[in-house]
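Format notes (please read before filing issues)

Several people have asked whether sequences and structure tokens are stored in separate files. They are not. Every record keeps both together, in the order shown below: the sequence lines, then the token lines. Line labels are part of the format and must not be stripped during preprocessing.
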Amino acid sequence: MTLSLLWFRQDLRLADNPGLTAALAEGAVLPVFVLDDAAAGPHRAGGASRWWLRQSLARLREDLAARGAPLILARGTAEIVLTQLMQASGASRIHAMRAYEPWARAQSRRVHEATAGALTLHTSAILREPHGIVSGSGKPYAVYTPFARTLFALGAPPPPLPAPPAIATPAAPPAGETLERLGLYPVPGEPDWAAGFGATWQPGEAGAAIRLARFTARALSRYGSDRNLPAIEGSSGLSPHLHWGEISPGQVWHAAASAGADGGATETFLKEILWREFSYHLLWHRPDMPEAPLRADFAAFPWREDARALSAWQRGQTGYPIVDAGMRQLWQTGWMHNRVRMIVASFLVKHLLLPWQAGAQWFWDTLLDADLASNSASWQWVAGCGTDAAPYFRVFNPVLQGRKFDPEGAYVRRFVPELAHVPNAAIHAPWEMPGATPRDYPGPIVDHAAARARALAAFAAIRAA
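Then the structure lines:
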């Protein structure tokens, strides 16, 4: 009987896991997770993501144990750890998901070489392999709409694979690290800044299934309108589960398609799944996307340096309620509503003229769903320097955005309690309120009209150059 290592990466689930299915078809399986921070370098999981990873590994270990298998935890260089495990266990093959981050692609190559070709990679994190999707000219897509049209034309992904009821595994598996020794979270002696995350989130495969079922039953039918309203649960909230692979995009696709919701709402939601696919497509073909603008002319953009303004944005103290509510939601829950992500990102790069990389870095450390492809592509889209970006002259007015998408101020009042008693008419511009404004809430750190004019002038400058 063949023994295979099942190398978990960002596919922390048992259902619809093609690597697990393939390994079981060959014989026995020894599951392993390797924390290789050195390989990831600056793109190692951020603080919030490490909190999630710890909880998710604990749930995965329980799910495997219920099927008779251990989860070997290790910390170190993946190619060294996996080679040693093969020697210690007698395994002759390794099955794993294909990863798309530049550092992870290099890691896969090193593992393949170190194990003399024993590594087999499977499509698990996305619907379609990015190198297999090309435009009519044979080139990678640079615009979302034709990319999405092509993927829709390919039809639904294959039906999800079931989770195995039992997993054959060696009788005496090698010992690994304890979860505590991985050093993910909490850090001894440091404040428990993530203490509130557990009230909002249930990491793990079961938590992902619960959230998907709740979304398809309650919110999917109204997704077209409600997804833009941050005060209600109108979006799926699946992004952290998708990032860590506790649920596959194929599972989400089939669940949404079979939920019986209005066709328009379902298609709108599936297009959001394809935005995620498009981000991976871009990252695969432009591995420099996390650091460099996809539009070369933006390399000369006159970004400012302003540590005080950046700190005010990070702490939710800009004086613009919808921006501050979003930044505080991020800090308190490790997540931010997608509409508000666009608003706060636009504010940073256009109102403050601070580089999008600074925003991407803050999101990387504070988002539970911090995903290199989606995070980088989304920031470039808002900044106007992506291949399929919002025009730079589109400068969101945070007051009008708040009035449109949070008309009664419920979202703002939840996360900016200083404004709890401000009337609806002034909730998004408290400086316009008759009489005294709230003394414990700051005034705007920048005037919208002046900031917009400055941003447009900066954009005109690089166009002229």
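For reference, the curators noted about this record: Residues 263-285 form the longest helix (23 residues). The chain has three domains: 1-125, 126-158+204-285, 296-464.
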